[in-house]
Amino acid sequence: QVQLVESGGGVVQAGGSLRLSCAASGIIFSDATMAWYRQAPEKQRQLVADITSGGSPKYIDSVKGRFTISRDNAKKTVYLQMNSLIPGDTAVYYCNVPLGSLATYRWGQGTQVTVSS
């Protein structure tokens, strides 16, 4: 059974930083491209960043230069380091394995990130 468990969210002031973690089980983690998504209130979930099995990252334009995605295959964990946070980053953050424009597995509980101005 696949489990994706996100953690590390919280409340932070604009300009602050957070580091999110996602622990995966039930998948061949080292072979998988992993992605972070976010869903803000009354908005659709969007892919924020992904990282291939070989460690190549991609980001949406609005987070480039502020967010860094990384992975630890031995721990089956993917991270999202978020710096220079802005109120527009406020959302519930999730991880998953991307499947085209969709995601492969059932969503975890996510982790709430709230950035105050």
SSE topology sketch:
Layout: E1 3-7, E2 10-13, E3 18-25, E4 34-39, E5 46-51, E6 57-59, E7 67-72, E8 77-82, E9 91-96, E10 98-99, E11 102-103, E12 111-116
Parallel strand pairs: 2-12
Antiparallel strand pairs: 1-3, 3-8, 4-5, 4-9, 5-6, 7-8, 9-12, 10-11
How does this structure look, described?
- The chain has 117 residues and is mainly β.
- It is 0% helix and 51% strand.
- The chain is built from no helices and 12 strands.
- It has strands at residues 3-7, 10-13, 18-25, 34-39, 46-51, 57-59, 67-72, 77-82, 91-96, 98-99, 102-103, 111-116.
- It has a 6-stranded mixed β-sheet with strand order 2-12-9-4-5-6, with no helix packed on it. A 4-stranded antiparallel β-sheet has the order 1-3-8-7, with no helix packed on it.
- The chain is globular, with a radius of gyration of 13 Å.
Helical region count?
A: 0
What structural class is derived from the secondary structure elements? mainly beta
Through-space gap between termini? 40 Å
- Strand proportion, as a percent range, falls in over 45%
| Spatial sequence of strands, sheet with the most strands | 2-12-9-4-5-6
Give the helix proportion (percent range): under 10%
Question: How many E strands?
Answer: 12
Element string (H = helix, E = strand): EEEEEEEEEEEE
Rg, Å, rounded = 13 Å
Overall average pLDDT? 97
Poorly predicted runs are none
Question: What oligomeric assembly is this protein in?
Answer: single chain
Outline the biggest β-sheet.
6 strands, mixed
Q: What's the shape?
A: globular
